[in-house]
Amino acid sequence: MSVPKPQMEEGFSFLTLKVALLLVFLVQFTVADSHHKHAGDGVQPLSKIQIHRAVYELHENASVKAYPVLLGTKGEDSQWVTVEVASPKPSEDDWLAVFSPANFNSSTCPSTNDRQKAPNICSAPIKYRFANDSNADYVKTGKASLKFQLINQRADFSFALFSGGLFSPKLLAVSNAVSFVNPKAPLYPRLAQGKYWDEMTVTWTSGYNIIEAVPFVEWGLKGEAQFNLPQEH
Ligand SMILES: *[C@@H]1O[C@H](CO)[C@@H](O)[C@H](O)[C@H]1NC(C)=O
Ligand SMILES: *[C@@H]1O[C@H](CO)[C@@H](O)[C@H](O)[C@H]1NC(C)=O
Ligand SMILES: *[C@@H]1O[C@H](CO)[C@@H](O)[C@H](O)[C@H]1NC(C)=O
């Protein structure tokens, strides 16, 4: 697409800003990395979860409630969700997993014709925290309140309480599902210089199929009249 000169200058300053941000990120990563090496850890936290060994031990008095149920009502791409946990037999190694899509039961497992028993859970948590995390008296009270930041990733979410630690998880309770109002919303806009000096490329990620929605770009100076461009293929 062609962009008049004032726009181009804005584009350049934006790119410069991006380079600056990238440098900051790189520096932070390096710091985080060396920190991890000092800790002698080097293990991806999610990889410790033996989810294929999980068994169902749903308990009628254990519960997990997540709210708000509807996320992104003001157009947000990410949002903090509060999760209230109650367990009749709390233990230090109880943990709370985030699943997305929300339905993670065995109905999502691929069918096998092996004689081997299929696992009870075939998807993997995208995040987890121990129930006692910032709830030091969880082991006494059996109640915890945890916060998770969720990013719109085009599927709904649920939260599951496990006992038995990460190595022999026992599923005690599953929460209600929460989801973003518009899971297909266009996200992650990216700007790049086009093939010619006066061209700029705008790309984004959308959950919409090309037959469901007509992509377009609206552009102009902030607060002034905007122009619409149909998307080029
Ligand atoms: C759940 O709580 C109720 C009321 O306190 C109690 O009567 C019941 O036995 C509990 N269920 C289990 C499985 O512990
Ligand atoms: C919380 O549980 C973890 C895992 O079992 C344990 O390592 C940690 O010491 C506990 N923290 C508190 C504050 O009890
Ligand atoms: C899995 O979850 C779905 C949707 O909640 C439900 O209809 C189905 O009965 C569940 N299947 C099993 C095997 O638990």
Note the topology:
Elements: H1 5-39, E1 55-56, E2 63-67, E3 70-71, E4 78-86, E5 95-99, E6 127-130, H2 138-141, E7 143-151, E8 158-163, E9 170-174, E10 179-180, E11 187-193, E12 200-205, E13 216-219, E14 227-230
Parallel strand pairs: 1-9, 3-10
Antiparallel strand pairs: 2-4, 4-7, 5-6, 5-8, 8-9, 11-12, 13-14
The chain binds 2-acetamido-2-deoxy-beta-D-glucopyranose (3 copies).
Plain-language structure description:
The chain is elongated and about 65 Å long. The protein folds into 3 domains: 31 residues; 135 residues, Sandwich (Immunoglobulin-like); 44 residues, no CATH class. Strand 11 and strand 12 form a beta hairpin. The strands form 5 sheets. Strands 1-9-8-5-6 form a 5-stranded mixed β-sheet, with no helix packed on it. A 3-stranded antiparallel β-sheet has the order 2-4-7. A two-stranded parallel sheet has the order 3-10. It contains 2 helices and 14 strands, in the order αββββββαββββββββ. With 233 residues, the protein is α+β, with helices and mostly antiparallel strands. It is 17% helix and 30% strand. It binds 2-acetamido-2-deoxy-beta-D-glucopyranose (NAG) (3 copies). The site of one 2-acetamido-2-deoxy-beta-D-glucopyranose has 3 residues, from loops. One 2-acetamido-2-deoxy-beta-D-glucopyranose (NAG) binds next to loops. InterPro entries: Fn3_PAP, Purple_acid_Pase-like_N. One of its GO terms (molecular function) is acid phosphatase activity. Keywords: Signal. Pfam families: fn3_PAP. It comes from Prunus yedoensis var. nudiflora.
